[in-house]
Amino acid sequence: MVAGKGVVLDRTAFYPGGGGQPPDTGTLTFGDNEVRVKRIRRTDGEYVHELDGEFPTVGTKVHGVLDWERRYQLMRTHTALHILCGVVWRDYQAQVTGGNMEPLKARMDFEFENMTAEFAHEVEGLINKEVEAARDIEIGNLSREEAFEIPDLIRTKINLLPPQITEIRTVDITGLDLQADGGTHVHNTSEVGHIRVVGHESKGRINKRLRIEVDA
Predict the structure, then answer these.
(1) 201 pairs with which residues across the strands?
(2) Across the chain, how many H-helices and E-strands are there?
(3) Could you say which DSSP state residue 114 is in?
(4) What is the mean pLDDT, run by run of 10 residues, along the chain of 216 residues?
(5) pTM of this prediction?
(6) What does the alpha-carbon distance between residue 160 and residue 162 come to, in Å, rounded to a whole number?
(7) What range defines the domain where residue 150 resides?
């Protein structure tokens, strides 16, 4: 189906973005054409692949290829944020108030009154211990009722799950962190690589930001 500036496929491996993770990019090949997929967006419940070039006609068989280097960097970065979130919750009981990421760079905001360079350095050491621990990461699904029986499954300060969602996808960093999450992740924390805390900022009286980078 053609929809505005893009096409809707009957199935896709492209991640549409969400939870601070950007959408995938890549290419669609059909016939002699290879067209760049600029982004994916969700419109009226459909995933629209925005294309930079000729559109395939309805019924055409297409082959999609992700920009895998970018996707894998985002998977590592997203998992790094879960490690950060898990450590901060376990050791300091601070909830998340916001976050965003790009390949190998990210920020996460927490409900802290104070934050110092010494604290940021301490957190960097703690999160890299979890990388070195090589913890397995498991993906699961729970009913909404089951999910809300688990304390702290929703780690954000505000519950962002729409009421119409009846099945909750979970990401479990074994022994560290279990959260509701719809993004893409690696299979083991060792895949993330070294994480650096590169900045800290105050974004309000009880809202403090940590910035991280993941080694290429």
Answers:
(1) 209
(2) 3, 13
(3) -
(4) 86 91 96 94 90 92 97 98 96 93 97 94 98 97 84 63 80 94 95 98 94 97
(5) 0.91
(6) 6
(7) 70-214
